[in-house]
Inverse folding.
C-alpha cells in the first residue's frame, strides 16, 4: 500500500469512528428499565427457569421463557414484591437430564433464587426436583405430565408425595386422558377408536390412559400404534389402521404431528375425527391440516370466558416476542405468578427474604388460590393442580371452538 | 510489507507497550450501561488512582509492562514473545470493546458519545503495534532449554507449576461469577481472562520455558502424574469447589471417560463410530435396572462396584456385537453403519424393549451411591473443612477417568495398540504384516464400549434418571467433536475436548440461542484450521499438517532480490 | 380406472376389510416415500461417486429448498396467484432449486474444496458441522422457523381410489412425487450416460488425474455435480412439502439418513441404484410397519437392519461394482 493510501484509509477510519460516536442506546434514566418507581432497596431476587431453549423442543421452551419473563416484568412494574426487584434467569437444559442437572444445580446454588419454573420434560424434572428439594427451593412445572413426580412410584394404588417443593399446574394424564375418552365414547358416540401416540412421555401417557378409559366405558380400541416423534408422514400407520374400521382416532401428541395426521386420514378416505389433548390445541393445528370436526381437550375453562386469558394474549402480543407462546405459555405465566404471589405473601410488607422464609414461601404456594390465565389455580396435598375443569374443543371453520366444559369425574 | 518496518521494530514494540498502558488507564465505557455497570469500573479514568486497577485492566497493565520490559532487556526470542503478548492484548481489547459496544448500542459507547472513553481503541492500536513490531524485528527461534537440575529441585518446580495450573483453572472456572441475571457480564470476564492467559502462555511458550517444563515432567513422569491427580482431587478445595462445579465436572468426567473409549475406536484404530453414545446408554440402563429403582424391571439391588463391572461387561458385549458386522466395511460406510446402530438403539430404547428402558417414562429415582452410610450427593466434612455436595461423585469420577486414561495409555503403547494404529494407517499393509485385522477391530469396539459402559454406570446414579433422550445422535456428535477437538489418539486430548465443550456453554450463557449454530460453525473452522486438535498426536500432526515450515530467510536478503530485474 | 370422490359408507368411510387393498395401499405408500428418498439419494450418490465424501449436509439442502419455496410463496408471490396451483408451482420449484443450489455451491467452495486432499475424517466432520449449522441457521433466521410451518398445495388436491377390495387411495400429490422423481432420475441417468458433460463426470469419478490429462477441469465437474444434486433435492423439498403440507427443520436429517441408506443399498455412485435403493427403502418401511412385530414404531429399525445386512453381505449394493481398493 502506498503512503498516500495509508493516510487516506486512516483518515476515513478516524472519520468513521467520529461519526459513529453518535450511536448508543443509553437510557435517559441511565440505569435499568425506565420509569420504575418501586422500592427496590432490599436487593434482587431471582425467579429461575429450566427449559429447553435450544434444540428440537426449543419452540416450546422459548414460549415458556417469554411468558415467564412477561410475568416477572409485570410484577416489577406493579411492585408486587415489596422492597425487592425481581429478576428472571432462564437456563437451558437442552431437553437432556444431565444438562438439566447442571442447570438445576446452578440455580440451586444461588442464594438469591427463590423459585424455579420448569421443567418441560418429565425426565428432566426427575433430575432437577431432588436438587431443588434439597435446597428447599419451590418448583412449579407447567408441563410435566408423568404422575410419578407427585404421586410416587405407585401413583394409582398408593400415592405418596415425593418432593414437598414440587408443584405443577399441568394436569396429569390420569385426568386428561380419561376425560377425553369419556367425551369421545359417551357424548360423541365413537365406540371403535384407534389410539396412536408419538412415543414421548406426554403423548404416550395420555394415549395409554385414554385407551384404558375407552375400554372401561365399553368401547373398543381397534388399533394401538406408535409413530416416531418427528414423523410427519403417516401413510404407513394410516394404512395399518384402515382395515380395523375405526370411527375415531385418539392421538397422544402435539400439533405439529396431529395436524398432518388429521389431513392424511382424510386423504386416505378415513373421514373420521381426530381427538387429542391440550398438546394439539393451537391455532396452527388447523393450518397444518386439522379438519372440521376434530376434537381436543384442554385444561381450564375456555379462554373466551376468562378475561385473564384474553389479557395474557393481548399482553403477549404487545410485548413483541419473536416466538409465539406455544402450548405451555399460559401455564408458565400462571406458574410464575404463583411463585411471585407466594413470595409477596411470605415477605409481607417490609420483611426481608432469607433461608428461613423459604418454608413460608412453600406454604404460601401450597395454599395458593388465585385466578390465573388458565383458570383457578390451587394445589392438592400432592402438589397437583386441583383444576380438574377441562374443556372439550371442536374445530369449527378454522379454529377450535369450545363445546363442553366440565369437571373430571372418575368413572 | 511488514518486513520493511524492520528498522522501526523496537520503537513499534515499545510504542505498543506504552499505548497499552495508557489504554488501561483511560475509561473504556462512556456511560453506565443499561444492564448495569461494566466490570472493573470501566467508566473511570484511573490516572487518579493508578494502583486501583483490577480485572482485565490489570491484565492489560501487566501485559503492556511485560512488552516494554522484554523489549528493553532484549530477552530472546524477543520478537516471538512480544508478538504473543501483543495477541493477548489485542484479544482482550477486542472482547471487552465488543461487549461494551454491543451492550451500549453502538460505537459511541467506546468512543465519545457521553463522555470520553477511548480505552478500547487505544489498547487495540497498542496491541496491533506490538504484534507488528514483534514480527517486523524478526521473530527469533524458540530456544530449547536443556537445563538439568537436581531431581528434588525439579520435583519442587513441577509441584509449584502444577499448583499454579490448579489455581488458574479454578480462576478461569469461577471468573465473572456464576453468570445469570445478577452477573450479566460473566461471559465477557471469562473470555477476557482467557485472552489474557493465552497471551501470557504464548510468551512463555516462545521463551522455551513451557517446552522445558514439558521435558522435565517427561523425565519424572510418575511424579507428574501423581501430582496432577492430586491437583485434580484438590479442585474442591479451591474457589471452584461449589456444588455447581462439582456437577459440571462430574458431567465432564462422564463424557471424558466415554470420549476416551471413543478415542480408542476412532483415534487409535481409525474406525469412525457415529453411534457411540449408545454404549453409554447401554451402561446407564443396565445400572439403572440393577440399582433397585422402582421402575426397573429387575428387582435386585447390587452394590455399586459390582454394578460397574457388570455394566462394563454388558456394554462390551454389545460393542463386540456392533463390531462384528462392520469388519467387511470400511471408512465412510462404517460411519453409516454405526450411525444406524445408534439410531436403532434410540428407537428401541424409546419403545421400552423388554421393559428394560422405561420407554417414554424413563427409569427415574435411581438411588444415590453411598459409602459407609454417606450418600454421594451430600456435603461432607473433613476435619474443619466443609466440602461441597457432590464432592464424592467428583472424586469417584476423577479416579474413574484416571483409571481409564491409564488403561488407554497402556493399550496405546502395547502390541495391541500398535496393531490398531497399523490398521488405521493402512489396513491391507497391516494384514500383510500378519496383523489379524478382524479380531483386533472387534477388540477395539469391545474395549471402547467397556469404557463407555463404566461411565454409564456412574451417569445413572449421578443423574438419578436414565431416559432415552439423553442418548441421541447429537450426543454422539458431541462426543466425536470432543475427541477431535482435544486431539485424536492423545491421552489427555479427550478430557480437554470434553471440558471445553461443557464449560463454554456454561460460561457463555448469552449465546445459548446460538449454541448449536456456533457448534456447527466451530466444527467447520476446526477442521479447516487445526484438524489435528489442540493436543496433537505426532502421527496425526505429520499426517494432517505436514512438516513444519523452514525458517523464513533473514531480512537482509530482500534488498538483494529487489535489485534483480523481474 | 375408477376415479372420483371417495365413496362414503354408513359410518363415513369405505366399508369392508380387504387384505389385498391394505397390502396395495402400503405398496403405494412405500413407492411414494421411496421415490422421494430416491430423489434425494441421487445427490448423495453423485457426490460420493466423484469425491468420495458422504455429504451429511445434503439432507439439509433438501430442507433448505423446501424453506426457499415456502419463502417464495409467503413473501414474494402475489396473493392473487396463490389459489392457482399452476401459477405457484413453477416459481416455487425455481426458488427451491435456486436456494438449494446456492447453498450447495457455497458449501462446496468454502467447506469442502479446501479439504480436498485431507484424510477422510476431516471433510466428514466438516459435513456434520455444516449440517448442524444449516439447521440452526434456518431455525434462527427464518421467521417462525422454530415450529413446524404449513406448506401450501402446489398441485391438484384430491385422491384417486383404486376400486380393489377396500379401495386403495392414491393421492394426486403422491402421484406427482412418483412421476417427478422417477422422471428426473431417468433424465439424470440419460444426462450422465449420453452427454459430454456426463461423460466428463464419469471420467472424473473414475480417475480425476487422468480426466485432467484429457482436458477436463475437475473443479468445474465437481461443482456441476453439486449443482445437479442440489437442484434435485430442492425440487424434492417442494414435492415433500406439497405431499405432507408442512415442513420443519428436522426433515433434512431424518430423510437424509434414509437417502444415504438408499444410495448405499443401490450401489453408491450408481444413479439407477439410488432410485432403486430409494424405492426399496420405501417399501421396506411400509411393509415392515404393517406386517412385522412392533409395527410402525419399529419401521425405521427394519430399514437400518436391512442396511447393515446389505453392507455385510454385499457391500457394493445392488448395482455397484465390486469394491475397488482406494488409496
Amino acid at each position: 500500500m502506498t503512503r498516500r493510501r495509508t493516510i487516506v484509509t486512516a483518515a476515513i477510519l478516524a472519520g468513521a469512528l467520529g461519526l459513529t460516536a453518535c450511536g448508543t442506546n443509553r437510557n435517559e434514566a441511565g440505569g435499568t428499565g425506565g420509569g420504575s418507581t418501586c422500592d427496590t432497596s432490599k436487593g434482587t431476587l431471582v425467579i429461575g427457569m429450566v427449559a429447553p431453549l435450544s434444540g428440537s423442543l426449543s419452540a416450546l421452551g422459548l414460549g415458556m421463557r417469554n411468558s415467564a419473563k412477561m410475568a416477572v416484568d409485570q410484577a416489577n412494574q406493579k411492585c408486587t414484591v415489596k422492597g425487592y426487584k425481581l429478576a428472571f434467569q432462564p437456563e437451558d437444559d437442552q431437553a437432556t437430564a444431565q444438562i438439566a442437572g447442571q442447570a438445576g444445580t446452578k440455580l440451586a446454588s444461588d442464594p438469591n433464587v427463590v423459585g424455579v419454573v420448569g421443567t418441560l420434560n418429565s425426565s428432566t424434572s426427575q433430575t432437577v426436583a431432588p436438587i431443588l428439594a434439597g435446597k428447599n427451593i419451590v418448583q412449579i412445572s407447567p408441563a410435566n405430565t408423568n404422575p410419578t413426580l407427585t404421586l410416587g412410584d405407585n401413583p394409582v394404588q398408593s400415592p405418596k408425595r415425593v418432593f414437598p417443593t414440587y408443584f405443577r399446574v399441568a394436569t396429569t394424564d390420569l385426568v386428561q386422558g380419561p376425560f377425553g375418552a369419556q367425551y369421545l365414547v359417551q357424548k360423541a358416540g365413537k365406540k371403535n377408536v384407534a389410539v396412536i401416540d408419538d412415543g414421548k412421555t406426554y403423548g404416550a401417557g395420555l394415549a395409554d390412559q385414554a385407551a384404558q378409559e375407552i375400554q372401561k366405558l365399553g368401547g373398543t380400541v381397534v388399533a394401538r400404534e406408535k409413530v416416531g416423534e418427528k414423523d410427519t408422514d403417516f401413510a404407513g400407520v394410516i394404512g395399518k389402521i384402515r382395515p380395523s374400521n375405526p370411527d375415531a382416532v385418539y392421538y397422544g401428541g402435539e400439533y405439529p404431528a396431529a395436524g398432518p395426521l388429521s389431513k392424511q386420514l382424510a386423504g386416505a378416505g378415513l373421514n373420521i375425527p381426530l381427538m387429542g389433548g391440550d398438546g394439539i390445541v393451537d391455532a396452527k393445528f388447523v393450518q397444518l391440516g386439522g379438519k372440521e370436526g376434530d376434537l381436543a381437550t384442554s385444561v381450564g375453562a375456555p379462554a373466551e370466558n376468562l378475561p385473564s386469558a384474553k389479557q395474557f394474549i393481548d399482553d403477549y402480543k404487545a410485548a413483541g416476542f419473536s416466538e409465539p407462546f406455544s402450548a405451555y405459555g399460559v401455564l408458565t405465566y400462571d406458574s410464575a405468578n404463583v411463585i411471585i404471589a407466594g413470595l409477596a405473601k411470605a415477605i409481607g410488607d417490609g420483611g426481608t427474604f432469607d433461608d428461613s422464609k423459604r418454608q413460608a414461601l412453600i406454604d404460601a404456594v401450597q395454599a395458593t388460590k388465585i385466578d390465573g390465565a388458565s383458570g383457578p389455580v390451587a394445589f392438592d396435598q400432592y402438589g397437583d393442580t386441583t383444576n380438574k375443569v377441562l374443556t372439550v374443543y371442536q374445530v369449527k371453520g378454522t379454529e377450535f371452538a369450545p363445546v363442553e366444559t366440565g369437571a373430571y369425574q372418575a368413572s | 510489507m511488514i518486513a520493511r518496518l524492520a528498522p522501526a521494530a523496537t520503537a513499534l514494540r515499545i510504542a505498543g507497550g506504552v499505548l497499552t498502558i495508557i489504554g488501561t488507564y483511560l475509561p473504556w465505557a462512556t456511560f453506565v450501561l443499561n444492564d448495569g455497570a461494566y466490570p472493573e469500573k470501566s467508566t473511570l479514568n484511573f490516572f487518579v488512582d493508578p494502583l486501583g486497577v483490577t480485572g482485565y485492566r490489570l491484565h492489560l497493565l501487566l501485559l503492556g509492562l511485560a512488552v516494554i520490559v522484554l523489549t528493553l532487556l532484549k530477552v530472546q526470542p524477543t520478537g516471538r514473545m512480544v508478538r504473543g503478548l501483543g495477541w493477548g492484548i489485542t484479544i482482550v481489547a477486542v472482547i471487552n470493546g465488543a461487549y461494551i459496544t454491543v451492550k451500549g448500542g453502538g460505537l459511541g459507547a467506546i468512543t465519545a458519545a457521553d463522555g470520553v472513553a477511548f480505552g478500547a481503541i487505544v489498547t487495540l492500536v497498542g496491541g496491533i503495534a506490538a504484534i507488528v513490531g514483534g514480527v517486523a524485528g524478526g521473530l527469533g527461534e524458540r530456544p530449547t532449554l536443556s537445563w538439568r537440575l537436581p531431581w528434588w529441585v525439579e520435583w519442587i518446580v513441577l509441584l509449584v507449576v502444577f499448583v499454579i495450573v490448579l489455581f488458574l483453572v479454578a480462576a478461569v472456572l469461577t471468573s465473572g461469577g456464576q453468570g445469570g441475571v445478577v452477573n450479566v457480564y460473566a461471559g465477557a470476564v471469562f473470555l477476557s481472562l482467557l485472552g489474557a492467559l493465552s497471551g501470557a502462555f504464548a510468551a512463555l511458550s516462545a521463551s522455551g520455558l513451557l517446552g522445558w517444563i514439558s521435558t522435565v515432567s517427561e523425565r519424572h513422569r510418575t511424579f507428574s502424574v501423581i501430582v496432577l491427580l492430586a491437583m485434580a482431587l484438590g479442585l474442591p478445595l479451591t474457589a471452584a469447589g461449589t456444588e455447581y462445579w462439582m456437577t459440571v465436572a462430574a458431567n465432564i468426567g462422564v463424557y471424558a471417560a466415554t470420549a476416551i473409549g471413543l478415542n480408542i475406536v476412532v483415534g487409535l484404530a481409525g474406525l469412525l463410530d457415529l453411534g457411540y453414545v449408545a454404549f453409554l446408554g447401554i451402561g446407564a440402563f443396565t445400572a439403572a435396572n440393577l440399582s433397585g429403582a422402582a421402575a426397573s424391571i429387575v428387582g435386585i439391588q447390587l452394590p455399586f462396584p459390582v454394578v460397574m463391572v457388570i455394566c462394563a461387561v454388558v456394554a462390551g458385549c454389545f460393542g463386540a456385537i456392533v463390531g462384528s458386522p462392520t469388519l467387511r466395511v470400511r471408512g465412510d460406510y462404517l460411519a453409516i453403519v454405526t450411525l444406524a446402530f445408534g439410531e436403532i438403539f434410540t428407537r428401541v430404547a424409546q419403545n421400552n424393549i423388554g421393559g428394560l428402558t422405561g420407554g417414554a417414562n424413563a427409569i427415574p429415582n435411581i438411588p444415590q451411591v453411598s459409602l459407609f452410610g454417606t450418600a454421594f450427593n451430600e456435603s461432607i466434612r473433613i476435619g474443619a473443612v466443609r466440602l461441597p455436595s457432590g464432592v464424592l461423585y467428583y472424586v469417584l469420577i476423577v479416579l474413574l477417568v484416571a483409571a481409564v486414561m491409564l488403561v488407554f495409555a497402556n493399550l496405546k503403547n502395547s502390541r495391541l495398540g500398535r496393531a490398531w494404529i497399523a490398521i488405521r494407517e493402512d489396513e491391507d499393509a497391516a494384514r500383510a504384516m500378519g496383523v489379524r485385522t478382524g479380531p483386533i477391530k472387534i477388540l477395539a469396539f469391545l474395549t471402547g464400549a467397556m469404557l463407555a459402559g463404566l461411565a454409564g454406570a456412574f451417569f445413572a446414579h449421578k443423574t438419578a434418571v436414565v431416559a432415552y433422550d439423553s442418548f441421541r445422535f447429537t450426543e454422539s456428535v458431541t462426543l466425536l467433536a470432543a475427541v477431535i477437538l482435544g486431539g485424536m489418539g492423545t491421552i489427555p486430548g479427550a478430557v480437554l475436548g470434553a471440558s471445553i465443550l461443557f464449560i463454554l456453554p456454561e460460561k457463555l450463557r448469552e449465546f445459548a440461542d446460538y449454541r448449536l449454530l456456533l457448534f456447527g460453525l466451530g466444527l467447520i473452522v476446526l477442521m479447516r484450521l487445526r484438524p489435528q486438535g489442540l493436543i496433537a498426536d505426532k502421527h496425526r500432526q505429520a499426517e494432517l499438517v505436514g512438516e513444519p515450515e523452514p525458517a523464513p530467510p533473514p531480512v537482509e536478503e530482500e534488498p538483494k532480490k529487489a535489485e534483480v530485474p523481474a | 380406472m375408477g376415479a372420483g370422490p371417495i365413496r362414503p359408507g354408513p359410518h363415513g368411510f369405505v366399508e369392508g376389510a380387504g387384505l389385498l387393498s391394505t397390502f396395495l395401499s402400503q405398496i403405494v405408500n412405500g413407492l411414494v416415500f421411496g421415490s422421494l428418498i430416491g430423489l434425494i439419494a441421487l445427490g448423495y450418490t453423485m457426490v460420493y461417486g466423484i469425491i468420495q465424501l458422504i455429504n451429511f449436509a445434503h439432507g439439509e439442502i433438501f430442507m433448505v429448498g423446501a424453506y426457499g419455496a415456502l419463502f417464495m410463496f409467503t413473501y414474494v408471490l402475489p396473493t392473487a396467484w396463490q389459489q392457482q396451483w399452476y401459477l405457484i408451482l413453477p416459481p416455487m420449484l425455481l426458488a427451491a432449486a435456486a436456494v438449494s443450489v446456492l447453498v450447495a455451491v457455497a458449501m462446496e467452495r468454502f467447506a469442502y474444496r479446501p479439504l480436498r486432499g485431507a484424510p477422510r475424517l476431516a471433510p466428514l466432520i466438516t459435513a456434520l458441522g455444516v449440517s448442524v449449522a444449516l439447521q440452526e441457521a434456518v431455525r434462527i433466521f427464518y421467521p417462525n422457523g422454530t415450529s413446524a410451518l404449513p406448506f401450501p398445495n402446489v398441485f391438484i388436491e384430491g385422491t384417486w381410489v383404486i376400486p380393489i377390495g377396500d379401495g386403495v387411495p392414491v393421492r394426486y400429490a403422491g402421484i406427482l412425487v412418483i412421476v417427478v422423481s422417477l422422471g428426473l432420475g431417468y433424465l439424470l441417468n440419460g444426462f450422465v450416460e449420453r452427454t459430454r458433460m456426463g461423460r466428463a463426470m464419469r471420467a472424473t469419478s473414475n480417475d480425476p488425474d487422468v480426466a485432467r490429462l484429457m482436458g477436463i477441469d475437475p473443479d468445474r465437474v465437481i461443482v456441476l455435480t453439486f449443482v445437479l444434486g442440489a437442484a434435485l433435492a430442492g425440487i424434492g423439498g417442494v414435492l415433500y412439502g406439497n405431499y405432507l403440507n408442512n415442513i420443519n427443520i428436522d426433515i433434512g436429517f431424518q430423510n437424509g439418513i434414509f437417502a444415504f441408506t438408499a444410495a448405499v443399498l443401490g450401489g453408491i455412485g450408481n444413479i439407477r441404484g439410488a432410485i432403486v435403493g430409494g424405492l426399496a427403502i420405501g417399501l421396506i418401511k411400509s411393509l415392515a410397519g404393517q406386517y412385522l412385530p412392533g409395527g410402525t414404531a419399529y419401521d425405521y429399525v427394519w430399514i437400518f437392519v436391512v442396511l447393515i445386512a446389505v453392507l455385510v453381505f454385499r457391500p457394493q449394493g445392488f448395482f455397484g461394482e465390486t469394491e475397488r481398493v482406494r488409496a
Q: What stands out?
A: Residues 556-566 of chain B have pLDDT under 50 and may be disordered. Chain B is about 65% helix and 0% strand. Chain B touches chain C at residues 266, 272, 325-326, 328-329, 331-333, 335-337, 339-341, 343-344, 347-348, 351, 428, 473, 477, 480-481, 484, 488, 513-514, 516-517, 519-524, 526-528, 531, 543-544 (CB under 8 Å). The first strand of chain B starts at residue 370 and ends at 371.
